Amino acid sequence: MAIESVMHENRVFNPPKTLSENAYVKNLEEYQQLCDAAEADYEGYWGNLAKNLIEWKKPFTKILNEDDAPFYKWFDDGELNVSYNCIDRHLPNKKDKVAIIFESDDGQTTEVTYQELYEKVCQFANGLKTLNLNLGDRVIIYLPMGIEAVVAMQACARIGLTHSVVFGGFSAKSIQERVIDAGAKLIITADYQNRGGKELPLKTAVDDAILLGGCDSVEKVIVLNRTGKEAALKENEIDWHELCKNQKEECEPVWVNAEHPLFLLYTSGSTGKPKGVQHSSGGYLLHAINTTKWTFDLKDDDIFWCTADVGWITGHTYVAYGPLALGGTQIIFEGVPTFPNAGRFWEIVQKYKATIFYTAPTAIRALIKASESDEAVHPKSFNLSSLRILGTVGEPINPEAWMWYYENVGSSKCPIADTFWQTETGGHVITPLPGSTPLVPGSCTLPFPGIAIDVVDETGQNLEWGQGGLLVIKKPWPSMIRTIWGDPERFKNSYFPNELGGKLYLAGDGAVRDAESGYFTIMGRIDDVLNVSGHRLGTMEIESALVANDLVAEAAVVGRPHDVKGESIIAFVVLKSDRPNPEKATEIVNELRAWVGNEIGPIAKPDEIRFGDNLPKTRSGKIMRRLLRSIAKDEEITADISTLENPAILDQLKQKV
Ligand code: WTA
Description:
This protein is of the alpha/beta class. It folds into 2 domains: 17-447, Rossmann fold, CATH 3.40.50; 533-654, GMP Synthetase, Chain A, domain 3. It has 21 helices and 30 strands. The strands form 9 sheets. A 7-stranded mixed sheet has the order 5-4-17-16-18-19-20, sandwiched between helices. The protein has a 5-stranded parallel sheet with strand order 7-6-8-11-12, with helices on both faces. It has a 4-stranded antiparallel sheet with strand order 21-22-24-25, with no helix packed on it. α19 (582-599) links the parallel β29 and β30 (608-611). The longest helix is centred in the C-terminal third of the chain and has 18 residues, at 582-599. The chain binds 5'-O-[(S)-ethoxy(hydroxy)phosphoryl]adenosine.
């Protein structure tokens, strides 16, 4: 590896010496040794980490089981409990250490120690045990960001229930689809969530989901009263506090097999409905711990803050599991970065002296914009000197935003971990390690030690560095997706396609390695998945939502680059009736946006909708999305349109409503 060559570039930022000296991985030699160790004895490498980082009830004797590839199993005769590993094992030495500092939307602070968290989790788990649930039953969690969300996840883990968290911004329809797909027996929700000074109802969305029908698997609904408002509960509904009252503050963990499904998390693919990504207990926990340790260098006196909601994978691995398993102290924030003003993140960092801060490029870009016109919300107006490591996740970070983050938030002394990973990978797969990796803005740098990342062409052949291609992972790794819930065929076809030989994990992103250093740059999705403000959405999902509306005959959705959100959503719609006049068009646009908000959630509302008598199609009837992307960007169309059935349609679709 010719990493030295990167160091000669002018835009290279080396780790600060004091950080390197004390980091878990201190320099590139140590990094390379870890990679070499994995290369020399792949199973031994992971096996050692699993032995050292996890407390097993019953030690595993087998590391990787490939008998049923690509349905790989890791440590599969070992037994453990994830909640025990996140909480109980810290009690002998750290019971009074603060585990979570919670800041509510309105600025109130609540802290829980490891002992208090233990008691809360045990009481809730004991409550759950009274509900006639069995090992592996699925539980939908639809809660605001807060201590209870973590308690609910940990309590499920404690007694072997498989949770599936649904982001609070998803609609009733999305909840219903997930309940049905997962066959959930229980839903855990709250009356309201508070965000940006507003009270947003959650429980009514659950009610509506059940009214939509098909949710017969649901036996009980637990409701957390977040606001203190009186609410009448139906027969099968239980108040969270009632359930916990009189429950014992200890609860023996249920020891599960390492492959026991810890959770399902639904995420968008290029086709069909969101898929339930199934994760294991042992392998997932291992990578959650190991990446929190090496990527964030999390130490005992750190104050860690990952701003992601538990509704996303980042909020699973780097809020609910990783930091706790390491016995760390973390901040959890209920609100939004711009309320009461765009200085909120910096105020929280200052108030609690956060040392590690992990957020999404879209938030950074929004805060850059806001601070341009208002000095009071600029990071320089706050004391952020406690920070030592920064991170980003979810989408490519443009070098300009990277530099702003580095200089203004990190005062040019905090390494930025640009972490590339996915719901399916469970944890980081390409990322700098703060004490060892020289940084180049816009590059997520090098593979996490042990993860066999590469770039190949469409037939699965290796590409030379410098050539763009498909990002793949060549060997199974412990925290990988195990299957798509209820659809093993889709799992195989989506991630281990025959076109690439059936053995490579296909990430779905394009990537290129720097010709000299081998540093990775992610070039974005190669499929029809959009990344809007770091949220993953399938174009097909939005199209299906649109055509479910009575007015709509046909729809095609594409992404358009957006300077804050990364991408915005543009929909081209053919109505069943004639193309509307301008006044009517505005009305229909509003109606369709609200409709998509109800079908999926506000994050999926198209930013722009245009109407045509038809869509640009080839003679064989395929929609030419490439043309639609150009039209959405107001680009001159230079592509060959000779195969287009109806070229006249292009001019029509150029017209905005
Ligand atoms: C994108 C989020 C560039 C990528 C953890 C991936 C990134 C998708 C980065 C997964 C990054 C994530 N640089 N692109 N550092 N991190 N992505 O499942 O397209 O919500 O495939 O997981 O986000 O999104 P997901």
